[in-house]
């Protein structure tokens, strides 16, 4: 049998939220595959320690065959020790009436501290996925304050947006979502993200066909499609009175699974990664790109044709990320 991998989930007590939806998926093999035993480390803060302990009790009661150990703790060092995969769901949520800067400041201090703990105590090849918002900028802070973790090992989640875009195309063409691939989310996991279907394809009887041609409605692709994906999170909150949890958890598993086990041939996915300047995106920004993964490494898909409409949208979201970066740095004092 394979030796177990240790997966850290921060913010794990978030009841009925992402942590609670994510942990059973990891324990069932949805993140690392059905033959990979796992040890789960769950971190949360003191006020949530009782709920955290309840999650641990439920995990034990689920008798998951792949689950080889559970640690529930409020101690960052214990949580990060020996971790192979870190999924950072914990963070500070904006409360009504709070300034953007105050929320940023709280998250900057959380991600700065957790960066050092991961750097010192996680496995040297630990892969990190930041889910908590502002996801791209939290990941940027983590990268800056964990300089000994290879920057390619630090990513943020835009796979939920990617999956939402696949879902919209599948609904619009009335085809199974598994027949749709190669949409792209460019930029920030925020309302400035650019969901791009120009290169997406649909598997049909005669092979892969352009989704854009099959849809035959560029107007829809440039307006409603984009806003529906950008605003899907808000639509879920309105309907559920809580933010997306099962879809966010599922997409976090998709992100890590594809990163570790590889993307299928001919398929790319969207991941927030450190820009190397590809497509004119300022180097060093954490920006969502189309990537393929092989042997545990992602690479940005190169050579896609970018039209004027796309260029403008890609620049708007890059600009927002630069502003977030400036704001985050101003919180570092
Ligand atoms: P919850 O508020 O239910 O959970 C957050 C948890 O983090 C809480 O249990 C809290 O106690 C804990 N926490 C706070 N500070 C901590 C610290 N210093 N160390 C460890 N834990 C800490 O939120 P939930 O709905 O689960 O969402 C989690 C985060 O994901 C939020 O920031 C949310 O905005 C973000 N999202 C990101 C998405 C993405 O696609 N990137 C989509 C879904 C989600 O909205």
TrEMBL record:
Q: Which family does it belong to?
A: Belongs to the LDH/MDH superfamily. MDH type 2 family.
Cross-referenced InterPro entries? L-lactate/malate_DH, Lactate/malate_DH_C, Lactate/malate_DH_N, Lactate_DH/Glyco_Ohase_4_C, Malate_DH_AS, Malate_DH_NAD-dep_euk, Malate_DH_type2, NAD(P)-bd_dom_sf
Reaction(s) catalysed by this chain's protein = (S)-malate + NAD(+) = oxaloacetate + NADH + H(+)
Q: Does the keyword NAD apply?
A: yes
Keywords recorded for this protein, A-Z: NAD, Oxidoreductase, Tricarboxylic acid cycle
Task: Keyword check for NAD, yes or no.
Answer: yes
- What's the top EC group for this one? oxidoreductase
Record-linked SUPFAM superfamilies: LDH C-terminal domain-like (SSF56327), NAD(P)-binding Rossmann-fold domains (SSF51735)
Listed binding positions for substrate are 94, 100, 133, 164
This protein's name: Malate dehydrogenase
Residue numbers binding NAD(+)? 11-19, 44, 107, 131-133
A single MF term (Gene Ontology): L-malate dehydrogenase (NAD+) activity
Where does the Lactate/malate dehydrogenase C-terminal domain start and stop, copy by copy? 158-326
The record's EC number reads 1.1.1.37
Q: Which GO terms describe its biological process?
A: malate metabolic process; tricarboxylic acid cycle
Catalytic residues as annotated in Swiss-Prot or TrEMBL: 189 (proton acceptor)
Ranges of residues in domain Lactate/malate dehydrogenase N-terminal: 7-154
| Pfam families found in the cross-reference section | Ldh_1_C, Ldh_1_N
């Amino acid at each position: 049998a394979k030796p177990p991998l240790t997966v850290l989930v921060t913010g794990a007590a978030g009841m009925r939220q992402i942590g609670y939806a994510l942990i059973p998926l990891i324990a069932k093999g949805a993140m690392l595959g059905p033959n990979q035993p796992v040890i789960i480390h769950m971190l949360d803060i003191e006020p949530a320690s009782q709920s955290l302990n309840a999650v641990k009790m439920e995990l034990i009661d689920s008798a998951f065959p792949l689950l080889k150990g559970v640690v529930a703790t409020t101690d960052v060092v214990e949580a990060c020790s020996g971790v192979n995969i870190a999924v950072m769901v914990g963070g500070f949520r904006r409360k009504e009436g709070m300034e953007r800067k105050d929320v940023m400041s709280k998250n900057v201090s959380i991600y700065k501290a957790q960066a050092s703990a991961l750097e010192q105590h996680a496995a040297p090849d630990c892969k990190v996925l930041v889910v908590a918002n502002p996801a791209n900028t939290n990941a940027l802070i983590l990268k800056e304050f964990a300089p000994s973790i290879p920057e390619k090992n630090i990513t943020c989640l835009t796979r939920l947006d990617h999956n939402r875009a696949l879902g919209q195309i599948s609904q619009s063409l009335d085809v199974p979502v598994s027949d749709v691939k190669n949409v792209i989310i460019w930029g920030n996991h925020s309302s400035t993200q650019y969901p791009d279907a120009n290169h997406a394809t649909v598997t049909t009887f005669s092979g892969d066909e352009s989704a854009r041609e099959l849809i035959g409605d560029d107007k829809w692709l440039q307006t409603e499609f984009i806003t529906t994906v950008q605003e899907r999170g808000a639509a879920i909150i309105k309907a559920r009175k809580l933010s997306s949890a099962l879809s966010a958890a599922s997409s976090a598993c998709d992100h890590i699974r594809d990163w570790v086990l590889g993307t299928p041939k001919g398929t790319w996915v969207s991941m927030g990664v450190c820009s190397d300047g590809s497509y004119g995106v300022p180097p060093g920004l954490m920006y969502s790109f189309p990537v393929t993964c092989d042997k545990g490494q992602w690479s940005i898909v190169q050579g896609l044709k970018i039209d004027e409409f796309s260029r403008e949208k890609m620049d708007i979201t890059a600009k927002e990320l630069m502003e977030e970066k400036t704001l985050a740095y101003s919180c570092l004092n």
